[in-house]
Amino acid sequence: MAKSNRIWVKHALGFVAIRPIDILYVKGHKYGSSLCFCDKFNFNKTRTILSKNTITLFEEELKIYGFIRCHRNYLVNSLIIDSYSSNESAVFLNENIKIPVSKRRKKYLVNQSKICSNENR
């Protein structure tokens, strides 16, 4: 699959095109997923879209853009990880968004994203 500059996301009212580089993380739910993404002009402002697609579908589609499955319910954009805390078993995005990392996926996350654990966070 070739990279494109947008992906189409199915949600309650139809479809919306989103640039993968704007997506911070995807959170899986029982009946779909929610995509949290940043505003183009203000990284501190985030928006969320609820989708009927599963996190597994997003994982396959976003893998080529550097997204990593760090937890059963979370897929994170590895390009925007600020830090990793082994004490809290979490990655931090933009210093105020905390995403859990499962024990099983910790080693894979650290290897894939080329981050070092931050023991003092």
Describe the structure.
The protein has a single domain, classed as Beta Barrel (OB fold (Dihydrolipoamide Acetyltransferase, E2P)), CATH 2.40.50. The strands form three sheets. It has a five-stranded antiparallel β-sheet. Strand 3 and strand 4 form a beta hairpin. The longest helix is centred in the last third of the chain and has 11 residues, at 103-113. Helix content is 16%, strand content 43%. The protein is α+β, with helices and mostly antiparallel strands.
Brief digest:
The protein is α+β, with helices and mostly antiparallel strands and 121 residues long. It is built from two helices and ten strands; from the N terminus they run βββββαβββββα.
Overview features:
single chain, 121 residues, alpha+beta, OB fold (Dihydrolipoamide Acetyltransferase, E2P), 5-stranded antiparallel β-sheet, 3-stranded antiparallel β-sheet, 2 helices, 43% strand, globular, disordered C terminus
